[in-house]
Amino acid sequence: MYLYLLGLVVFFYLYRWVRELPRVSDKGSKYVYITGCDSGFGNLLARHLDKKGFRVIAACFTEKGEEDLKKSCSRSLITTHLDVRSKDSIAKVAAMIKDEVGQRGLWAVVNNAGVAVPSAPCDWLTIDDYTSMMDVNLNGVIAVTLSVLPLIKKARGRVVNVASVFGRISPTGGPYTVSKYGVEAFNDSLRLNMVPFGVRVLCIEPGFFKTNVTDAGILSKSIKTLWEKMPQELRDDYGPEYLQKVMDVLTNKVAKISDADLMKVVSCMEHAVSAVRPRTRYSPGWDAKLFWLPLSYMPSRLSDYIMTMEAVPIARQIQ
Question: Which domain holds residue 45?
Answer without folding.
Answer: 27-209+260-293
